[in-house]
Design goal:
By secondary structure, chain A is mainly β. Chain A is built from no helices and 9 strands. Chain A is about 0% helix and about 45% strand. Chain B is built from no helices and 11 strands. In chain B, strand 5 and strand 6 form a beta hairpin. The chains are: A mainly beta (about 110), B mainly beta (about 120).
Chain lengths: ~110, ~120
């Protein structure tokens, strides 16, 4: 799986958009970009994933650059409950061991009141 | 829908003792994973099951860790004997079979402290 690079930490004001960047310059054509988050003392939670088109769901939006070497997770109106570690992961879309997720250290997002 | 259940939530043991963690995945989920998360790090995969077969256990320290999923449903992870460096949160996750969506469902984890 391609390696990802994320900032160690970020702050965001409550009610503002939180934009979390991720670099994945070695991503291959069949690898998807996934985002998970982990709130303190809980297990990781799936947020969103995409291949090359931008994606949006009830939690967030995912913007993937045209060359697919980087992406940004957008939380449109951050709340205090969005304070968590956010993991960007790239992964192939097939069966067996390729279903694994390899977590890095992620970005600690702190939403400030 | 019930989530992934894990027990115990917390366990404190002394080094060289043994410990077992239990996981009940979401009903119908064929794939089950055990992850180890050391404080300040991201989760690291220990073992992946597909039904009752092992798909990948390359990162499982087999001299002291073992895991089983005998009936393809719930699973047990055992550590014997425990070392200080085994202090971590042990996370269980599951995902449905068939077309992989990439969405894993995690339990709340079992926090192990080895003294």
């Amino acid at each position: 799986d391609a390696k990802t690079t994320q900032p160690t930490s970020m702050d965001c004001a409550e009610g503002r958009a939180a934009n979390l960047p991720c670099n994945h310059s070695t991503i291959s054509g069949n690898e998807y970009v996934y985002w998970y988050r982990q709130i303190h003392s809980q297990g990781p939670q799936y947020i969103i994933h995409g291949l090359k088109n931008n994606e949006t769901n009830e939690m967030a939006s995912l913007i993937i650059t045209e060359d697919r070497k980087s992406s940004t997770l957008i939380l449109p109106h951050a709340t205090l409950r969005d304070t968590a570690v956010y993991y960007c992961i790239v992964r192939g879309y097939s069966s067996g061991s390729a279903r694994q997720l390899t977590f890095g250290s992620g970005t600690q997002l702190t939403v400030l009141p | 829908e019930a989530g992934v259940a894990q027990s115990p939530r917390y366990k404190i043991i002394e080094k060289r003792q043994s410990v077992a963690f239990w996981c009940n995945p979401i009903s119908g989920h064929a794939t089950l994973y055990w992850y180890q998360q050391i404080l300040g790090q991201g989760p690291k995969l220990l073992i992946q099951f597909q039904n009752n077969g092992v798909v990948d256990d390359s990162q499982l320290p087999k001299d002291r860790f073992s895991a089983e999923r005998l009936k393809g449903v719930d699973s047990t992870l055992k550590i014997q004997p425990a070392k200080l460096e085994d202090s971590a949160v042990y996370l269980c996750a599951s995902s449905p079979g068939g077309v992989p969506t990439g969405e894993l469902f995690f339990g709340e984890g079992s926090r192990l402290t080895v003294l």
